[in-house]
Task: inverse folding
């Protein structure tokens, strides 16, 4: 399982890191689910792919 940090996630979603951080609070459905007990934007590559196919 590969973990993605804020910058990896930003590159994957083609968004700025500060936009992702803002979306975590303002629009949590706009970003993939995060892992508990990790950095706010820490997520797995697999969950990002599943989230991306769902949000379409």
Result:
């Amino acid at each position: 399982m590969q973990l993605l940090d804020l910058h990896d996630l930003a590159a994957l979603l083609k968004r700025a890191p500060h936009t992702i951080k803002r979306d975590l609070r303002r629009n949590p459905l706009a970003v993939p689910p995060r892992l508990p007990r990790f950095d706010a934007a820490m997520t797995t590559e697999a969950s990002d792919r599943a989230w991306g196919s769902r949000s379409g």
